[in-house]
């Protein structure tokens, strides 16, 4: 749209207001021949163009009068300023609202957000317990997402928020930007995990530029959070996702780390999880010292917890969705985790 504005608006201003007074028409008879300066076909393709064409056509139908056209010239400066204002506002509006379906980044998009949010989190001092709000599957539920952010901001007991995948619906930059701009209103840090919908189209490139690596870890107090990609279907179940080699290397305790929490989008009980990796994944988790829970989203259903074998071992906790106006509060204390669903 900017190119279109350039092609007619500046030409229009120069044609009308850049001409010497002697070049303006002095009667309706020669007004029609004078307006050859304007490309009427171009004007007719734009809303503002229709307005200007209407102005010109109205003038051309006025009774022949030298005085009318001299009056028009008196007010030409004022009209020029008005048109310049309309032009400026149009350019600004187009620049801020337009996206290409293939676009992965623009000058207003966030960059390396997870790294920055983790840095903010490191400035906080954990209390006797850690409380995390897990929110998944925002997709295009912008109104629900706004309500969620307002709900969290009204509390004073949340350490940070996990945006647990399906940030977008179709992997589009406009969707990522829309959700990010809402989440950045949070009063606490938020960290994003990749979801299956976020890998559609150019979504992976958008996520990596906006948030960072698909597999990463961070610590808060004595807890190490291991965030990873489990969206196996998006890789045609090729055995690469989840990356078990990476998980084995990162599901480790270290200095000052007493417990681990795994976070990913698709749970291993879901059909979108690589079926060949279900048992190795669950077995690895149950054999990992200090791992107290594996947290997931994706299923758009009420909070549920299951175990690989019966009711013992590592709990696999599947949380509800923002699209259902629900999130889950995880409270971690003394090596135990408690999950509570919250409706808003």
Give an account of the 3D structure.
This protein has 344 residues and is an alpha/beta fold. It has two domains: 2-97, no CATH class; 113-343, Metallo-dependent phosphatases (Purple Acid Phosphatase, chain A, domain 2), CATH 3.60.21.10. Helix content is 37%, strand content 17%. The protein has helices spanning 2-17, 28-34, 40-43, 47-60, 66-74, 76-97, 113-121, 142-153, 173-183, 203-210, 244-250, 278-286; strands spanning 130-135, 160-164, 190-193, 216-220, 223-227, 259-263, 291-296, 304-306, 316-318, 326-333, 336-343. The strands form two sheets. A six-stranded mixed beta sheet has the order 4-5-6-7-9-8, with no helix packed on it. A five-stranded mixed beta sheet has the order 3-2-1-10-11. Helix 1 packs antiparallel against helix 6 (76-97) and helix 8 (142-153) runs parallel beside helix 9 (173-183). It starts with a helix and ends with a strand.
Topology diagram in text:
Elements: H1 2-17, H2 28-34, H3 40-43, H4 47-60, H5 66-74, H6 76-97, H7 113-121, E1 130-135, H8 142-153, E2 160-164, H9 173-183, E3 190-193, H10 203-210, E4 216-220, E5 223-227, H11 244-250, E6 259-263, H12 278-286, E7 291-296, E8 304-306, E9 316-318, E10 326-333, E11 336-343
Parallel strand pairs: 1-2, 2-3, 5-6, 6-7, 7-9
Antiparallel strand pairs: 1-10, 4-5, 8-9, 10-11
Helix pairs in contact: 1-6, 8-9
Low-confidence stretches: 1-50, 64-75, 91-95
CATH architecture of the largest domain: 4-Layer Sandwich
What separation lies between the terminal Cα atoms?
A: 40 Å
Query: Helix count, per DSSP?
Result: 12
* Rg estimate, integer Å: 29 Å
Q: CATH superfamily membership of the largest domain, which one?
A: Metallo-dependent phosphatases
Strand content: 15-25%
Strand count: 11
Helix content: 25-40%
SSE run: HHHHHHHEHEHEHEEHEHEEEEE
Major sheet strand order: 4-5-6-7-9-8
């Amino acid at each position: 749209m900017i190119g279109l504005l350039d092609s007619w608006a500046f030409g229009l201003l120069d044609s009308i207001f850049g001409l010497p007074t002697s070049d303006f028409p002095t009667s309706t008879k020669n007004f029609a021949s004078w307006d050859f300066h304007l490309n009427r076909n171009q004007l007719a393709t734009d809303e503002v163009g229709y307005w200007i064409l209407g102005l010109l056509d109205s003038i051309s139908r006025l009774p022949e009068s030298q005085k009318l056209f001299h009056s028009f010239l008196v007010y030409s400066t004022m009209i020029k300023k008005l048109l310049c204002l309309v032009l400026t506002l149009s350019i600004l509006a187009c620049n801020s609202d337009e996206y290409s379906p293939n676009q992965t980044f623009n000058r207003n998009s966030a960059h390396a957000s997870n790294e920055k949010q983790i840095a903010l989190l490191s400035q906080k001092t954990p209390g006797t317990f850690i409380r995390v709000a897990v929110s998944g599957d925002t997709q295009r539920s912008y109104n629900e997402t706004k309500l969620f952010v307002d709900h969290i901001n009204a509390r004073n007991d949340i350490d940070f928020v996990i945006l647990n995948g399906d940030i977008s619906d179709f992997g589009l930059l406009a969707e990522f930007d829309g959700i990010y701009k809402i989440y950045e209103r949070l009063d606490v840090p938020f960290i994003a995990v990749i979801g299956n919908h976020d890998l559609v189209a150019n979504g992976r490139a958008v996520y990596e530029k906006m948030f960072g690596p698909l597999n990463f870890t961070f610590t808060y107090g004595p807890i190490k959070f291991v965030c990873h990609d489990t969206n196996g279907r998006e890789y045609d179940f090729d055995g690469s996702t989840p990356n078990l080699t990476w998980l084995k290397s990162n599901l480790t305790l270290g200095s000052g780390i007493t417990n681990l929490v795994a976070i990913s989008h698709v749970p291993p009980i879901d059909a979108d999880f690589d079926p060949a990796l279900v048992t190795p994944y669950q077995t690895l988790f149950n054999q990992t010292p200090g791992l107290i829970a594996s947290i997931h989203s994706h299923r758009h259903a009420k909070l549920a917890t299951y175990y690989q074998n019966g009711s013992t071992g590592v709990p696999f906790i599947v949380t509800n969705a923002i699209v259902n106006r629900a999130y889950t509060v995880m409270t971690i204390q003394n090596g135990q985790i408690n999950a509570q669903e919250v409706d808003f």
